[in-house]
Amino acid sequence: MYDKRISSGETITFVFARRIQHAPASFLGELFRVSSDPSIISFAGGLPSSELIDTEGISSAAQDVFKTDPRTALQYSTTDGYRPLREYIADRYRSRLGVPATADEIQITNGSQQCLDLFAKIFLDPGDLVGMERPGYLGAIEAFSLYEPEFLTVPLNHEGPDTVVFEKTMKEKPVKFFYGIPNCQNPSGCTYSQERRKEIAEILSDTETVFYEDDAFGELFFDGTPRLPIKRFLMENTVISGSFSKITAPGMRIGWMYASFEILKEFNIAKQAADLHSNFLCQQILHRYLVTNDLDSHIRKIVSVYRRQCQLMCDLFDDLMPSLTHTTPEGGMFLTAELPSGLHAMKVFEEGVREKVAVLPGMPFFVDGGGTNIIRLNFSNANEERITEGMYRLAKVINGLSSKKS
Amino acid sequence: MYDKRISSGETITFVFARRIQHAPASFLGELFRVSSDPSIISFAGGLPSSELIDTEGISSAAQDVFKTDPRTALQYSTTDGYRPLREYIADRYRSRLGVPATADEIQITNGSQQCLDLFAKIFLDPGDLVGMERPGYLGAIEAFSLYEPEFLTVPLNHEGPDTVVFEKTMKEKPVKFFYGIPNCQNPSGCTYSQERRKEIAEILSDTETVFYEDDAFGELFFDGTPRLPIKRFLMENTVISGSFSKITAPGMRIGWMYASFEILKEFNIAKQAADLHSNFLCQQILHRYLVTNDLDSHIRKIVSVYRRQCQLMCDLFDDLMPSLTHTTPEGGMFLTAELPSGLHAMKVFEEGVREKVAVLPGMPFFVDGGGTNIIRLNFSNANEERITEGMYRLAKVINGLSSKKS
């Protein structure tokens, strides 16, 4: 049926770009595979609670869109995104955080992951310096790595990045941008103190370095109180990325970049070249949902569940695995635990999967080979019953491995 | 309210990546703006007919998805895409084109524009050679340019790329990949002959060059007969990108890359870093729509309308503007016309907008400053009444400018 000469099945060697060799071995794919096995209780993923997605509200919003003007919603649209949605986002910055955002400063993206890719694309030449927290978000490391930068990391403690190291790094090796998650960081769950935010703004105020403030979790503080973004103290040199994945639904893939017009102009060119525009149907459904539902009340519901689940996980760590030290998040979806000396995170992952509980080894959050004594746990996706059962399984793994070791 | 020192409004100079200087001045944004002014009859855009989008079918599919398993549709998903949709696409390659595709060789993307970005990302280092048709698709030029390649172009005639030039180029300066649109090319509307496809496959068969076959329009042949893809003659060295934008709805932004596993493995890493995965809700809605509706019958309806509209546009060119020569497409959504000598396409664009008719100047389809005597017209979006009115307006512009010139 096919031309024999050509379909001979011989292996062809493709010559890929150099950047592909810079891609870190990815854990995310493996994660999603583990997450999809229902017999495994997974704390390894980064999923919000499926039970808390307002499927009825979104379904009803979708029906409204299909009734109102489906031909527009299903047609091509502009790169910057659905204007009423951008206005909603800008309004919320003004009312919630006192930051004078306008719709013109908002670009809609496919979740905030796309912000990482496009921002790196417009800023990074090979060999350029990028600053990050240590540990830092693995999705950012993956996205940035493909633009072949050199990473400089600053240790993260419970108040934020170490300012002594931060200031020294910025002076000696000024980075193009510093990427951080000041609110409920991924993986650690740590939140920068307000004092630390001001110090960072101060250090960067006379430089060309941009602070890239990833705010995926700022709506998820357990005390319901928003923290002032670094942009509040360093207006022009800070960009903020945001996402509806954690407060409405990830499957629609809607996030945004909030940046000054000068940056957004280039960002928009990159967005257009990348995929013309984000899913317009879902932009309309999401906007319809937001204006016909009480988002704040929905978020309070999410937060009250996550707070209990986080507390439960922390308590079970303390009760069942006293040899570990763990972070104590003020919000968000993640915490990290430090393993007893000599216990390798990969061993815990492998043994965990055998015992039907998954945690994420810390290595993908480190660009320098660190993280082998760290595990990240997600407390948003599993309910209290599964958290309890999963933590008992994990305790069996940890305590078993610890006793073997000693 | 804000710290004075920091919010002083002084202009900060951002240091963007070198690639941003390689971005061609974009016409697409301007296009969409022109397209949104209802008083202008626009042949400049690339929109399928809004009237032919099956809003009822898609709405009903959406309701089904919301009734069946909305929590999964609204949650994060895997990077490769919704497997039943990938199986549907692979099935269609097998039944329609006799190409032995499997779901494992299909990666879902945000329209086929994202294929351009991600493919360039995994293949191109700065200075690498890329082959393209002349004229070539502007969206591809925009996407590839950001990876700083050197473009080599091969003149496109009505049978396909000039094979003498093609062979000479491939021998003297082997490109990483050659990008082409064999079916109803954008902008010209030209279709490669089967003979030309075989010749190209022959020339590339012993090389490392990949043929990137953009097949956005292969379902839109006026005679309803599919043409054999180049992949049929050059299996392992060809990738095909496809899109649902032209046969169902662009607003959902669903396309795909069909490639060998070796390429798709790297493509998948780039996709994950770019945005984790494509909109999962719309992948499910689209799949539901495809399995509960008769796509072939829907496509026949689209094609019969586009065929009439294209014929009308060609006839009006011949009747009203005999000084122009235009291509005669066998399908798709576009044709190009060559302006009388001395008449600049930008002049026609500007004068056209004044007369409330928009055409697209040819320059963005050329990487070498060409195209000033070419205009591209879209015949899918405007109905026959508007095509007639628009062509009369265009004739007034063209004939007015021609007489002024002489």
Report the count of strand segments of chain A.
14
Q: CATH top level of the largest domain in chain A? A: Alpha Beta
- Most extensive interface, chain pair and sizes: A-B, 102 and 103 residues
How many helices of chain A? The count is 14
Quote the CATH topology of the largest domain in chain A: Aspartate Aminotransferase, domain 2
CATH superfamily of the largest domain in chain A, by name, is Type I PLP-dependent aspartate aminotransferase-like (Major domain)
Q: What level of helicity do the residues of chain A show? A: 40-55%
Mean pLDDT of chain A: 93
What does this structure look like?
The structure is a homodimer of 406-residue chains. With 406 residues, chain A is α/β, with parallel strands linked by helices. Chain A has 2 domains: 145 residues, Aspartate Aminotransferase, domain 1 (Alpha-Beta Complex); 216 residues, Aspartate Aminotransferase, domain 2. Helix content of chain A is 42%, strand content 14%. In chain A, the strands form 3 sheets. In chain A, strands 2-9-8-7-6-3-4-5 form an 8-stranded mixed sheet, with helices on both faces. Chain A has a 4-stranded antiparallel sheet with strand order 10-11-14-13, with helices on one face. In chain A, strands 1-12 form a two-stranded parallel ribbon. In chain A, helix 12 packs parallel to helix 14. The first copy, chain A, is globular, with a radius of gyration of 22 Å. The N terminus of chain A is likely disordered. At the A-B interface, helix 1, helix 2, helix 3, helix 4 and helix 6 of A face helix 1, helix 2, helix 3, helix 4 and helix 6 of B.
